[in-house]
Amino acid sequence: MTTAHHAPGGSRPGGRTARTREAVLTAVFKELGRGGFAALTMEKVAQRSGIHVATLYRRWRCIEGLVCELLTDLSSDVPLPDTGTLPGDLRALARSISAFYGDARMRRLIEAVVSAAARDPQAATVLRSFFGERMVLAGRMVQRAVVRGELSADTDPEQVVSALGAPFYYRILIARRPVDQDLAESTAIAVWAAARAGAYASKGNSSNNSGNSKTN
Amino acid sequence: MTTAHHAPGGSRPGGRTARTREAVLTAVFKELGRGGFAALTMEKVAQRSGIHVATLYRRWRCIEGLVCELLTDLSSDVPLPDTGTLPGDLRALARSISAFYGDARMRRLIEAVVSAAARDPQAATVLRSFFGERMVLAGRMVQRAVVRGELSADTDPEQVVSALGAPFYYRILIARRPVDQDLAESTAIAVWAAARAGAYASKGNSSNNSGNSKTN
Q1: Which residues bind DNA (chains A, B) (predicted)?
Q2: For chain A, what is the radius of gyration of the CA atoms?
Q3: B118 and A112 in contact by Cβ < 8 A?
Q4: 89-148 in B: which are within 8 Å (CB) of A?
Q5: Which of helix, strand or coil describes residue B214?
């Protein structure tokens, strides 16, 4: 599942498979922009892309799969920065996320993906593995910061980058207001201050687990 | 819309309307626990609650409305703390949120609400106004902290309490892993450190707006 997606831009550029994929993902994006997830069907995607609906079903199984692949494709437009300092990297990444979701179609897309995951376990798996991979990649900026001595060695990279992303998804999915540059700035400052204060210290080794405070 | 919901526990306790409401919300909760949002229908809620489906449609219009009302009802179980210090309040609230969403049914419920909002503008309005109200109420802990001198006067309460909630919704909806006590502890520490560092300073007055950095 984790390697089921094609590289952004399509494998074998110019090949027929790549062209089909591009036409289909473009159609999904346009249809999402027009009617949102509620109105999205395989039939409409087939009509708009000119690809047979049978081909769509064979390759993507369901509309959820298509929407998740589109997310993967578009998110490669959010670059992972390397500015030389962690505050700089956090700020650059927060600005990229903010710019990405500044487009209402992208907000509709993430809503569609989360809705898909709520209904389809396979979509949920795709979503989890997609964000898991992104977190590992983005986490490298934290590892570099540790090497540079900006953060203590027990900082958990995944906690840091999750904390950077969380406010944007909260804003979009829960508060349901547009993201803006103010959110990017305040989030970058917040995560840096929290990381310096040790809020994201790794607990994964569980060597100092008190053993009785876990609730679920 | 903002005042359309009944008080938790039902107005006129013991009245017929309150009993109907309780039976229906209990049925929605049980059905969500069994089959998730995908399998939830007005007909199933009617069957399980013993309330006529026509009554359900008349009062709640659609399944989305019912699910949103259930969220409002259950969330009143998350108390707003007043421990005497902001770090204490943040920790207590984070623990309450963590305990609330430690129950898988609650995670399914918030998923259902977000899915509903993606498809139904009215559900989106309910969700936005519900969380807006919660944020205002929870923001009082920040106002008390400002009065006590723990934070500077320009701290924006809504930004602080949004930052406290965000990591839980990110964990549930995006990372798709269970919430736990570690997340509560690290979030409370992070928000306190960030607030002290001025990350949540109010920009609402726009008196020192540079005027050219706004993108959307």
Answers
A1: 41-60
A2: 19
A3: yes
A4: 98-99, 102, 108, 111-112, 114-115, 117-120, 124, 127-128, 131-132, 135
A5: coil
- Which residue among A99, A128, A200 places its CB closest to the CB of B176? A128
Q: Any CB–CB contact under 8 A between B205 and chain A?
A: no
Matching CATH number, A16-60, of 3.40.50.10470, 1.25.40.10, 1.10.3430.10, 1.10.10.60? 1.10.10.60
Report the C-alpha gap between A156 and A142 in whole angstroms. 8
Asked if the domains A16-60 and A79-196 are classified in one and the same CATH topology, the answer is no
Min CA distance, B17 vs chain A (Å)?
30
Topology annotation, domain A79-196: Tetracycline Repressor; domain 2 (1.10.357)
Question: What are B43-84's pLDDT values in tens digits?
Answer: 999 999 999 999 999 998 888 778 878 888 888 778 899 999
- ipTM exceeds 0.90, yes or no: no
- Range in B37-46, B64-73, B95-104 with the lowest mean pLDDT: B64-73
Partnered with residue A155 across adjacent β-strands are A201
CA distance B50 to chain A (A): 26
For chain A, the structural domain boundaries read: 16-60, 79-196
Q: DSSP string of chain A? A: -TT-SPPTT-SSTTSHHHHHHHHHHHHHHHHHHHHTGGG--HHHHHHHHT--HHHHHHHHSSHHHHHHHHHHHHHTTS-----SSHHHHHHHHHHHHHHHHHSHHHHHHHHHHHHHHHH-HHHHHHHHHHHHHHHHHHTHHHHHHHHTTSS-TTB-HHHHHHHHHHHHHIIIIII-----HHHHHHHHHHHHHHHHTTTTB--TT-TT--SS----
